[in-house]
Amino acid sequence: MASTPETVAAAPAHGAEHPGLAHHFESYEQQRESASLGMWIFIAQEIMFFGGLFIAYAVYRHMYPDGFAAASAELDVKLGTFNTVVLIGSSLTMALAVRAAQLGRSKASAWFLIATMALGTTFLGVKGIEYHHKYVEHHIPGPSFQFTGEHHGQPVPANQARIFFGLYFGMTGLHALHMVIGLGLLLWLLYHTRKGRFTPDNYNYVEGVGLYWHFVDIVWIFLFPLLYLIGRH
Amino acid sequence: MWQNFPLFPDQASTIAPKVDAIFFFGLGVAAFFSLLIAVLVIALAVRYRRRRPDQIGEDEAPHDALEIVWSVIPLLILLVMFGWGARVYFQATRPPANAVEYYGIGKQWMWKFQHPSGVREINELHVPLGKPIKVKLTSEDVIHDFFVPAFRVKYDVIPGRYTTVWFQATKVGTYHLFCDEYCGAEHSRMVGSIVVMDPKDYEQWLTRGGGAAAPAASGEELFSSLACSTCHRTDSTVRAPLLVGLYGSQVQLADGSTVKADDDYVRESILNPQAKVVNGFQPIMPSYKGQVSEEQILQLINYIKSLAAPAGGATPTPAPGKKG
Amino acid sequence: MSSEAAVAEAPHNTHRVHYLNANYGVRSWLLTKDHKRIGILYAISMTFFFAIGGIMAALIRLELATPAGDLVQPDTYNRLFTMHGIMMVFFFLIPSVPATLGNFLIPLMIGAKDLAFPKLNLASWYIFNIGGAITLYALLHGGVDTGWTFYAPYSTSFSNTWVVVTGVGIFITGFASILTGLNFIVTIHRMRAPGMTWFRMPLFVWSHYATSLIMILGTPVVAITILMLAGERLFHIGIFDPAYGGDPVLFQHLFWFYSHPAVYIMILPSMGVVSELVAAFARKRVFGYGFVAFSSLAIAVLGFLVWAHHMFIAGVSVYAALVFSILTMLVAVPSAIKVFNWTATLYKGSVSWETPMLYALGFIGLFTIGGLTGVMLGTLGIDLHVTDTYFVVAHFHYVMVGGVIMGYLGGLHYWWPKITGRMYPVFWSKLAALIVFIGFNLTFFPQFLLGYLGMPRRYHAYPPEFQVLNVMSSAGATVLAVGYILPLFYFAWSMRYGKPAGENPWGAVGLEWETSSPPPPENFEVMPVVVGEAYDYGKKAYSFPKQEAKLG
Fold this sequence. Notes:
The complex is a heterotrimer of chains A (233), B (324) and C (552). Chain A contains seven helices and two strands, in the order H-H-H-H-H-E-E-H-H. Chain A has helices at residues 5-9, 28-63, 65-72, 77-102, 106-136, 158-194, 204-228, and strands spanning 150-151, 154-155. In chain A, a hairpin with a 2-residue loop joins strand 1 (150-151) and strand 2. In chain A, helix 3 (65-72) crosses helix 6 (158-194), helix 5 runs antiparallel to helix 6 (158-194) and helix 6 (158-194) runs antiparallel to helix 7. Chain A starts with a helix and ends in a 5-residue tail after the last helix. The model of chain A is unreliable at 1-11 (pLDDT under 50). Chain B is an alpha+beta fold. Chain B folds into two domains: 1-40 and 67-212, Sandwich (Immunoglobulin-like); 215-306, Cytochrome c-like domain (Cytochrome Bc1 Complex, Chain D, domain 2). In chain B, helix 1 (16-47) packs antiparallel against helix 2 and helix 4 (219-225) crosses helix 7 (294-306). Chain C has a single domain (4-543), classed as Up-down Bundle (Cytochrome C Oxidase, Chain A). Chain C is 66% helix and 1% strand. The longest helix of chain C has 35 residues, at 248-282. Mean pLDDT of chain C is 93; it is low at 1-13 and 547-552. Chains B and C meet through helix 1, helix 2, strand 7 and strand 9 of B and helix 4, helix 10, helix 11, helix 12 and helix 13 of C.
């Protein structure tokens, strides 16, 4: 995307004439495309980040299928399903928020952001309940870990369940951390939306956070079946 | 070489000359290309040195054919190195069928060895000259590594599993044994010696009781003293599977899968019997974790291996209806 | 921008405004968004960490001068080599060229005003230092003794040192690497000047692009591995400890999946520097430009496929070993292509023996030796004897010190006049280069012999027959240290007393040489348009459209 010499000669002055155009960019187009590419690259590295946990999960599920099935049965699939629906719903409201910003409708955008935050908070609340259940049942790896599950009538060694739960907490915990960060980003977006900062020319940040939120949703869509639905009929 | 200033290690095993040969080939390739580049760079930099302050160089058109040539030729040389090296690696990691098995246990920060006859040694391993020997290794704690430079033999010693090295010594003498995977404070002192003796001297050494340590209880003795024989009987399979003919066979597990009864399987069954319950049996075997040492497990494995299948071949299966 | 008016009016004299004097004061540096200042900030931090790593190296070599472990306790020695590795790898080598020279030069070389995300750039420097500070905290309280490779189960269940804290420090610093890579990729894609097509970019930019790909795809994997290590150590989850049903070799796979590509993060930028140096000091286009550009990408891709060549005797299957060995042979080819092309560039060139060129030529020789010994290590039959011995130590120091650091020093000397506006004293710089070359070879060549003899790595005490070679190595280290200390002095001296440099003291071709030394805050007074090829000696490759001097 090189701009032509004519464009260079007529480069925008930035400042008051072109609010929101950073000084080192030549045009809104360049700024938007840079922000977009930047966010996609960030998503790529997030995939690699979660990837390590997925690899460990794959290795141990292959090694201890019974242990994993027995431990997975101890998770509350109803709450997990509810959360999945909530999170997918929040991706819908997020997409609508981005669309509203693109159309210059700040008020609508703000409401959709609030809805997204509400759904995200609901998700985290349910996760908190689930974690509490695990705490009470002594399923958190550590000195007080206990497990007496079985699979197909055979008892399952506690070690195998401990690895499952370690990965469960690691993966859902990392996911939840990303959601908390996402909520913070949404709050920041809400603040600037209310201030009228985002225009159809310059709504990169809304789109970027939207991309991030969708990514976090997709991670959950993989986590849910892998953790909650092992061996369920 | 000079005693105090060696530049090249002793060759004391059958594999050592093979490793040295591929090494010298690799070294030759490295030296050739390093010298070639060094000479070319210096010669060209001198020959084309700048003679006037404003002089510029003369560009050349890209020469794709040349690029291909000097990519393909090194690649071919590298593939030769790969193939030759792979061959040596196969030979170095595949013990011959008649290799006699010793056991080695690494633990922070010492080596424990056991001869087939039961003689035990600490930090030293006496072996006969000219016989293929394999050492089955495991660790009691962290990852160690069994390294004998003079034999060109090396492999990691890993907790929770078995690894194997093999060698056939070709020269009488005493050779360094090093732990070659960092394992904590006294890693550099986890050293010992391999003592290669004439076979006659080795036999004499063995009959003298070898080292000071008492010979290990045989696997058979352990099998009864640890009460394995209470359930694993040869006349009934009410409580436990038959062990005769087990080693090396395919075992049907309760969840429908099959597994090969190898060293790791036997070890796991002793320490963690619930992990793989045999089809048709109740999970009632107690765990022996904490009650058997790694050496004792090796002895038990050896004993179970020796329980050959009866003439006729097939491994006996539990009698129908006897679900325990 | 307050400097706008000043630049439009200022004549070309010593009162010209440039990025160094545009603002004064600590705040103007600590809150800068200027990629040039950020590059300098990184250089200062990294030099500090290099000094710490260097002191550890000095103590290690001092201990190894005698066979007995008589200088320090075994525990202390183990912490010394661990912290030496951690400091050098994570806090010096990985950021070295990209965060200093890359940051400074990429916008200049492509005709942009700054990187795509200047605030993110500054944030990355802070993140780098926070990680460094945490690691230093661990160091001051006793450090870690697991080796920089943190193998389980020693690191998870046996070591009584600051593993988790150090891990957190490295984890945090990793984000600086990721953000730098992200910034470079977006900048190179979106901010090239008009006419600067991909194949008109300097090779330095190509190599940084390839490096950035590795930074963003590889670093997160070591990050999650460190978190898993911490989880294992704190909660005994069981993923790496066999006592809890885990597999210690899984840790090695996850660790090396990043740490092998990491070495290409270290070498590719230095290779980019060498391309620039060879072109500048032979005054011609690098031979085989296209092949050299693509070889950087090939190294980045293939580099992700060879990690288990660190594990040939670690318990991987023989078939896995075969696959990784053959892939290791493949990854050597693009590096060979570079070396041949650089050499061919000298043919019919106009070669001058300035200090940067001395470093470049030294790089070519030493990297060739390092790379070929790497291929020897990739050969299964050789590796089974020399892995984990001083042969490996010698190999990686040849590529990292003889390679990366020589390239870094060459680049520092080449762009010093651009960065500071001053020239360094030539006699001392050439003397230092010679001392570095001699000291380096004396330190590390004997280690190849030690390795084949069987001296293991990470040994605090060793059998007496290894002593002569160890003494040679330690003597060499002393010489090398002198070679490294000299530039500290003459560079510092030059900043005050060095001869002022003009726009293009070397007569080189490149956009960075078409602006003043030091450059103005927004790099060019008039943004350039590219009309010719890279390294077009003899033709005018750039035009600066006549128009009002607008910096907006």
